[in-house]
Amino acid sequence: MAAPAPITPPRVAVATAVSRGNNRIANFLNSGTTPGTDSGLTQSLTDVHQVTQVLAPNAHLIVSIPGISFYFPAVSSLSGIQARPINPGQSRSFVNYVQGTGLRLGTVAFSGIELINVDTVNANTFTVIIAGGIPDQSYDEFIDKRVIVTQTHGVGGVIVNLITQQAPTFLVGFTTRAAGWADLIGAGATQDVTDGYLGKQRKSIIFANDDAAAVLTVFDTAGNILGSVQPATSWTTDAGGDVKLHNPTAGNVIAHIGEVYYS
Length: 263
Prior knowledge:
Elements: E1 18-19, E2 48-55, E3 60-63, E4 69-75, E5 81-86, E6 95-97, E7 101-104, E8 112-116, E9 124-131, E10 141-144, E11 147-153, E12 159-164, E13 169-173, H1 174-177, E14 184-185, E15 190-193, E16 202-209, E17 216-220, E18 225-229, E19 233-237, E20 243-246, E21 253-262
Antiparallel strand pairs: 1-2, 2-9, 3-8, 4-7, 4-9, 5-6, 5-8, 7-10, 11-12, 13-21, 14-21, 15-20, 16-19, 16-21, 17-18, 17-20
């Protein structure tokens, strides 16, 4: 992505508390280094800083905390967030980061990081973790802690990776959501299954067909066929969004609907 035009809004420095000791950021540090003093750092080797901020649309921010790595465990905007380390005497371009990614510098410590919300409409809530250490003269490396669970075809046939959140989940039977649902779908009937139960985000959905002969159909809200549930089998997909389960036959079908939501 090309570097953005010069930023005109005023710049803001952010200060944050420090946590020390062993933690999950320790794996960013080079275990083979010997503790010592580096002119680019003022904190100890295991200092870890966490900053959570809300950036207005197209806003710019400088986080004046030194380190050798930064990582974004949370980025609310689907557009991601642009960031670059501030290295004295060294020019760096902005790189776009999404939730679950970051950068570890091997050759030189940075004095802070510079951030831009590239979304011109929506605010962007993000959390960044900055870790200290001593440069080990190796190459820069990107940190990526996302988990790719499957691939699918997007608009124009483009392959899209579906990413699952690393977060607690809970199960919901459809009878809990819909009092009138009796694990049965009538002849020619369609059952709507909306996302967002209790304001939560769905991780996956399960359709089970107990009939020995009927084939049920799953549609999106526009009426496009997403898949079918064969007799005496279940159909599961790791996706949110509103869907519809349809019984195209002339008889009632015993069927079950289950969902998994992020808690």
